[in-house]
Amino acid sequence: MGAPKYVLLSYDEGAESTGEHGYEQTWALCQDAADLFADPSPPTRETYELLGCAPEGGLRTALARARADGSAPLGRLTLETLDKAGGGEGEWWLEDVRVVGDRPCARDLSLRDVTVEGRPSDDNLYDYPQCPPLSPGYRMLGADGEPWGGCRDLAHIQEDRPEPLEPPLHLLGCSPRGALRAALDGGEEDLGHAKVVRIDSSGRPVQPAVEGELRAWIPSARGPGLVDLTLDPWSERPPLAAREVWDLWGEGRPTEPGRWAGCAADGRRFWLDTALANHTHTTPDRPPGTTYHLDGRHITDPPGFFCALGEAVNGPAGYLGWGLDALNDCLRGSWGATTPFTLVWHDATVARTCLGVSPQTCRRPPTFEDLLAFLAERHVDVRLA
């Protein structure tokens, strides 16, 4: 029998949501899993009509290009809701917008109805913007707040899309125990809700994997007394990159720095998730004025910077933020370091060369100079070496 990679725990959504501890029971140790990893589906692009537009600036330019080429990129579109006096009442955003057509407005031939495709921003506080009574509509702005004109209303063009079919998760070579063993022996069909957790070779939890409903079992070919379980997940599955990262954590928390360096950007991002899940707050912060050494040899992308920074402050597999907002929170204390401190950035030329601007996204990743400015504002003295 191979060493188990996963533990199956009982799951109580109500107890977990209220922060209750000690309710989980171990239901099985599982040698492996099939169909566990899957990258999330690409964000759904929706179709909208900007009704009664008086386009300006970038929107007017994109309209002209769309008439010539069939469609044109626009970028991030901000819709600022106006009150009846024309003042702003809140903002709603569409990301990665593309203009796909326009026509005269039926209510006012001096205006245009513009059709766009885009993705509602994760920052939106609501699914769809609503104008108050007597509002003149929306003020339209570009990614940097530049004026793009106004529109009187917004219409969402509903499209029927089939729900993607996802395979169930199969837990292989499981040794059932406790309530699950009793349920299997009793022939119960309702096996209950469960949580799958990745464990290391010593049985220590590394990171939660997925929650779902157990719905079937069969005897396992991996050994007598073992079963293969079928689970229908209701939470997101770990990304494909998780497999590589969890293998690197398979013998326990890495004790050598830079184990993340061979991972691609997706793997480095998940490494940061894993490092956060394994961060402990039992060690007090080092005092102000401490000097840390940042190994810059593998900082070829923004996730690499945060992997290296976490290790510079908190040792191998350490964590100090996965992005600028998270880093800002960590620098306030209780995450290992106290500002002001000195950061000696070795082999900084690697990051200076690799951390450029990505023109494909509206919210570009931080550049080398962005990181230096951010750290300086937060009283981190960076010395390039």
- The ordered string of helix (H) and strand (E) elements is EHEEHEEEEEEEHEEEHHEHHEHHE
CATH fold field value of the largest domain = Barnase, Chain D
Classify the secondary structure makeup into a structural class: alpha+beta
Shape: globular
Number of helices: 9
Give the oligomeric state: single chain
Strand order of the largest sheet: 1-2-10-13-12-11
Strand content: 25-35%
Biggest sheet features: 6 strands, antiparallel, barrel
CATH superfamily of the largest domain: Barstar-like
Whole-number count of domains: 3
Helical amount among residues, as a percent range? 10-25%
What is the CA-atom radius of gyration, in angstroms?
26 Å
Low-confidence stretches: 358-362
Distance between the termini: 50 Å
Describe it.
The protein has 385 residues and is of the alpha+beta class. The protein has three domains: 103 residues, Thrombin, subunit H, CATH 2.40.10; 112 residues, no CATH class; 142 residues, Barnase, Chain D, CATH 3.30.370.10. It contains nine helices and 16 strands. Strand 5 and strand 6 form a beta hairpin. Helix 4 packs across helix 5 and helix 5 packs parallel to helix 6. The chain is globular and about 80 Å long. The two termini are 50 Å apart. 32% of the residues are buried. About 1% of the residues have low confidence.
